[in-house]
Amino acid sequence: MTGVGEKAVTDAAGALPTSTAKPTKTALEGWRLGVTPTLAGLRHYALIPILILAWEIGVRTGWIDGAMLPAPSAILNALVDMSEAGLLWRDVWASIVRVTVGFGLAAVVAISLGLAFGVWPRAAAYLNPLIELIRPISVLAWIPLAILWFGLGDKSAWFIIFLGSFFPIFTNTYLGARSVALIHIRVAQSFGAGRMLFVRQVLFPSSLPYIVAGLRVGLGVGWTCVIAAELIAATSGLGYMIQLARTMIETEKVMAGMVVIGVVGFAMNAAMLWLERKLIPWAQPR
Amino acid sequence: MGDISVLRLSKSFGSEPGSQVLALDDVSIDIPTGQFLCIIGPSGCGKTTLLHAIAGFERPSKGEARIDGRMISGPGPDRIVIFQEYGLYPWLTVAENVEFGLRAKGLNAARRAEIVRHYVNLVRLDGFEDRYPHEISGGMKQRVSIARALAPEPAVVLMDEPFAALDSLTRDVLQEEILRIWSVTGQTFVLITHNVDEAIFLGDRVMVMTARPGRIKAVIDVDIARPRDPAMRTHDPRFLAIKDELAAHLRDEVALAAA
Q1: In CATH, what is the architecture of A86-283?
Q2: CA separation (Å) from A266 to A105, A270, B7, B142?
Q3: What are the tens digits of pLDDT across the range B25-45?
Q4: Best label site of A52, A257, B35, B50, fewest CB within 10 Å?
Q5: ipTM of the complex
Q6: Which of A192, A194, A282 comes nearest B91 by C-beta?
């Protein structure tokens, strides 16, 4: 029983995209199988409130300097204030829209290119070293060029997010395109499948698990990039907000912004994990 | 259509001249249209290499394989392979898998649906059209693979130990089904097996191959009338005589392969 429980726990926590639910025998058993993993999954979050409590006590007793590290209650107050003023939501929205544009562009270009590399390996052999040379350059190093080319504002941020998201998506897609099972290629060749049919019904679905994994990583990187871009090259968004709060020495607002960044990133990752399960039904356990 | 002729075909693997392994050595055989040929031999005798040479997956090192007089230079929809491990696309449903070869042929949707229905019916998978491969049994997967291979009406059907991964009951049922289908379609069937009963029960002829390098040791005519009754495998004197003959050939080769 514990074995089943353990597996289900990691599932509820989103660590593994698997479900090991056995066929249920009774309604009660079904209810327990449904509820137990959820409760057990929550258990894994137990450290967070404990840490927050210790932190709060630390600041109140003077162990921690509240000017350097504001108390959780101060951060919460700042969050409520900013939320009530409506400024917070404007900044969150601005950042999410930027990520959506940059990540969306990156996804389209990276998936197309990764699959094209799979279809034309000879062209890929010439182009791949170029990509591998650009890939290690930190996205931060592109910010000066981005400002020079696109000025301060959305376009610079889109460009930075695009670069950040592009490489994980591309690398994974290309890996997926090279990982098509030989037997699946041979079946397609045997039937005389044309290039379009091969890409649509063999190459793309076969690469999909890799592509979705790449999208999840790419979205995560894109979310960190939007903050970096907004710190320097924007006049709205969460990155701009914490930069502005820093100049005003409103440290609790800086940290409130960080908390929002963390929560939004966490939610994005969870959404991608959910999408992964929806998109690849055939990869589910037998 | 579907006349295969293999002429003095040799195939070696390995790029360096010193370390080359000869898999097939000077193999010649004609398989006339509509014949059911079974190929049997010890593991590593090059059976699969020969089948792949006919399929067009492997280029011969020497000699050639022809279909209806044309040289085989690559895979093509006139010669479809049924693999032991099925090779179904896990992301396509049963019906979509069967439809794949019809899409490759460029048929319109209405025609494709009609043919899919016919072949799904032929392999008795009605009601399973919308299942994914991971939702059906191994025997059903091989039925899908058979339906998919037959749907575009290839002149030649090449089977590489198609029933080896199945339990013996499923295997018996599928052997009878493949005979029933073959007797209706009149296509050329080539089937690799290492099961003597299967080779005799199915084949018009059985070709025995030697251990590496693969050569033809014997080609035996199975002069038993069709339709064949599964019970013959234990009762028919002619069946048992051929079985003895094949077993003797194979015993030598398996001993050699193991040595």
Answers
A1: Orthogonal Bundle (1.10)
A2: 22, 6, 65, 44
A3: 999 999 999 999 999 988 877
A4: A52
A5: 0.90
A6: A282
